[in-house]
Amino acid sequence: MKAKTPACAARSDPDQPLVGFRTAVTATLSVRNWARAMDFYKAAFGANELYRVPGGGVGQLSVSGAEFWVAEESPEHKNFSPESLGGCSVRMLLIVEDPTAVCAQAVRAGATEVAPVADAHCWRLGRIVDPFGHHWEIGRLLS
């Protein structure tokens, strides 16, 4: 699926509420080597590319409808990768049907296992770190 670059149309009254608008929180992962990171997330999580800025450097991905952004780090804008910071200040939580399979796929794609998938606190959860320093907990609630 080729990513779309949508045209931005000016609204006649930008102060009027948008019909069907939904507030959301999403992450933008700052990375070194944006193109390699985009390829990794596609291989590791089966992500689909929804959008990329013309010329590259910023793109939006979706894992089964869960959307996030990936951007080349930009120290001049105070956006640093975990590699530049020497660590990460957040963990991503990817909720999937089969955490064991997704963790294994991520490791095959180049991630490192931090904690094996196990059942605890009503969750089946494992943790990996991707090649760009971002930590991902991959799990689901137990029934």
Task: Write up this protein.
There is one protein chain. The protein has three helices and eight strands. The chain has 143 residues and is of the alpha/beta class. The chain has a single domain (28-141), classed as 2,3-Dihydroxybiphenyl 1,2-Dioxygenase, domain 1. The strands form two sheets. Strands 1-4-3-2 form a four-stranded mixed sheet, covered by helices on one side. The radius of gyration is 17 Å and the shape is globular. The model has no long low-confidence stretch (mean pLDDT 92).
CATH homologous superfamily heading: 2,3-Dihydroxybiphenyl 1,2-Dioxygenase, domain 1
- CATH-defined topology: 2,3-Dihydroxybiphenyl 1,2-Dioxygenase, domain 1
From the structure provided, what is the oligomeric state, counting identical versus distinct chains?
single chain
Number of strands: 8
Output the strand order for the largest sheet: 1-4-3-2
Average pLDDT, to the nearest integer? 92
